[in-house]
Amino acid sequence: MVVSAGPWPSKKAEMNTLEINEELRPQRADNKHQFINTKEKYLVTQRLNHVFKNPLCTV
């Protein structure tokens, strides 16, 4: 016979999830910062590409 665990997670599983979130929070902040830097570099590159293709266009 199989017994269902029910709709609520156990306290142990909940604590593990909270601990994991605490460990990953700094990594998420670093990834967000890297994403913003990469996005800015991409936008600058796109703008420079446009300017070089259209030299009479103003920045």
Which helices and strands occur, and which strands form pairs?
Blueprint: H1 11-53
Q: In short, what is this structure?
A:
This protein has 59 residues and is an all-alpha fold.
Q: What this model shows, in words?
A:
This protein is mainly alpha-helical. The chain contains one helix and no strands.
* Overall outline: rod-shaped
Structural class assignment = mainly alpha
In helices, the fraction of residues equals over 70%
How many beta-strand elements?
0
Mean pLDDT, as a whole number? Answer: 83
Task: Sum up the structure in keywords.
single chain; 59 residues; mainly alpha; 1 helix; 0% strand
